Amino acid sequence: MSSNAHLGHHAKKRFGQNFLHNDAIISSIVDAINPEPNENLIEIGPGLGALTEPVIERAGNLSVVELDRDLAHRLRHHPFLAPHLTIYEIDALKFDFAELATDEKPLRIFGNLPYNISTPLIFHLLTFKDKVQDMHFMLQKEVVERMAAGPDCKAYGRLSIMTQYQCQVIPVMEIGPEAFKPAPKVDSAIVRLIPHKEIKNPVKDLNALNTVCLTAFNQRRKTIRNSFKKLISAEQLISLDVDPTLRPENLSIDEYIKLANFIVDNPPELPEPKSKKRSAKK
Ligand code: SAH
User: Fold this and answer.
1) 150 appears as a binding residue in the annotation
2) How far apart are alpha carbons 199 and 203 in whole angstroms?
3) How many whole angstroms separate alpha carbon 177 and alpha carbon 111?
4) Ligand-binding site membership of 18 (annotated)
5) Ligand 1 atom closest to Cα of 111?
6) Whether the Cβ atoms of residue 152 and residue 250 lie closer than 8 Å to each other
7) Can you list the domains of the chain with their CATH numbers?
8) What DSSP character marks residue 60?
9) For residue 277, what pLDDT is reported?
10) I need a surface site. Which of 6, 26, 71, 168 has the fewest CB within 10 A?
11) 130 Cβ contact list (under 8 Å, min separation 6)
């Protein structure tokens, strides 16, 4: 059997398949998730059931979202697991997770995610954050470091700001490549995300926060005076009490929120179309 076959399934690279196979590691991950009966548990990418099975043992039932039709088929016909599963054979990036949530039962989402789609998937899941109790994900270690990073360090960026604005980010444990078959080339880590019940300093528009982060970190070695030129002038930065000589990684999340709110209130002028002139707002 070739090295990327596990339990008779040939791992598919395009689906980011790296299967967990070490019982001790699997049980510490399940301990971290702490699934309980009657919870609204959802696993993304159950694969061959490494996490699914011990979660069923503790919680009874769960929903799973699996894109690979061969794996979905296996689960559907699995003698022990199938009766406990609601299987959605669909791309998690397109799945409407709100469909599964109720007011009494917020979602508890978890998964050993395909690393090639982890960032867009997390942004997709964050759009349902009001219906989510918590999320536990296995990610590339660097991605967890970026999510959890604070200002003044290299890992701090758009992912840190967008995630921490919406959730508490708790790195739980690191896992080496040998825990998977086939072994990935990178180290992995489990992160717990708990959406904030209430956001103390809310931004007027989440897209504006994303825009200021993209603008700033697109050129992370430039001073913000330079990178924000088209959105906010140096004088305006000073009037907002933000030092224009700083670099993007030196600004706190609250400062990014302030800049985002500024561009909501003072939208940058778009280049004028050739003939028709619109009356300038300001
Ligand atoms: N949970 C298993 C498998 C992890 S591998 C384990 O830990 O062993 C990643 C899993 O995500 C695979 O089952 C893969 O088929 C699935 N997957 C990949 N892309 C997906 C997507 N877009 N939506 C849902 N599942 C996906």
Assistant:
1) no
2) 9
3) 17
4) yes
5) 1
6) yes
7) 5-195 (3.40.50.150), 206-265 (1.10.8.100)
8) S
9) 52
10) 168
11) 195
